[in-house]
Structure prediction request, 101 residues.
Amino acid sequence: NVVPTAGGMVLMSLSDSGMQYLVAAARANCGVTAGRYMFEARILEVLSPAEPGRRSTATPRQHLRIGFSTSSSALYLGDTDESVCFDSEGLFMAERKRSPC
Prediction:
């Protein structure tokens, strides 16, 4: 449920008809073999869409994980031993364990 926009430079999650309650994930197609690498991510907007016809709904929790994984790992970072990531709560995740940075 992630859609590329702006010529593939921006990823946007779907938020219609209850889709805002699902987790969205994407993987880059650039491989790292050795050396030091840097990448940057920027949150352009935070959406809190309401469902039509409902007065009060639970606010979707905004969460971000960014890191590295092997090509055969699960799409969600931190859920396997093959990925490491940082999350929006300031925690580092590796080997299925969360620890403060």
Q: What stands out?
A: Strands lie at 2-5, 10-13, 65-69, 83-87, 91-94, 97-100.
